Amino acid sequence: MPLMFNGLEHTAIASPDPKALAEWYRDNLEFRINFEYDGNYFVRAANGAMLEIIPSVGDRQPQAMKDPGIRHLAIEVDDFDGAHAHLRAKGLKFVGDPFEVKGNRLVFFEDRDGNYVHLIKRPAPLP
Q1: Would you say the pTM of this structure is higher than 0.90?
Q2: Strand positions, DSSP E, 8-59
Q3: The domain made up of 8-57 is a member of CATH 1.20.1050.10
Q4: 71-127 topology per CATH
Q5: 36-76 pLDDT, tens per residue?
Q6: Separate counts of helices (H) and strands (E) for the chain
Q7: How far apart are CA 71 and CA 123, in angstroms?
Q8: Is 8-57's fold the same as 71-127's?
Q9: Which residues touch 22 (CB under 8 Å, ≥6 apart)?
């Protein structure tokens, strides 16, 4: 029997200004805005991963790194130091300094809405 489920097609983020957040991903992380309808924006990364950015309702609640729910978006990079320096030069808000876990290099930062994002450079892909 062939597989029925191919994997994640996209992840949605609710934003008070979907267009501005889509442009932030385009301008800072080299995503491209690939589709828009009724104030919803799809942005696609070079590796094909997509985010749908939809209009939010209500106020954002405070968040902590390990609150329940989706906690961060991980952006794979080939040149960790170059990508980190590029984002620092753009004035992004980092949540701590770069660190290493089991050979993986990471650094966390926030997008324009305060969602946690991080760069990751793995020495080898996960199995």
Answers
A1: yes
A2: 11-15, 32-37, 40-44, 50-55
A3: no
A4: 2,3-Dihydroxybiphenyl 1,2-Dioxygenase; domain 1 (3.10.180)
A5: 999 999 999 999 999 999 999 998 888 888 888 889 999 99
A6: 2, 8
A7: 23
A8: yes
A9: 31, 33, 36, 41, 43, 53
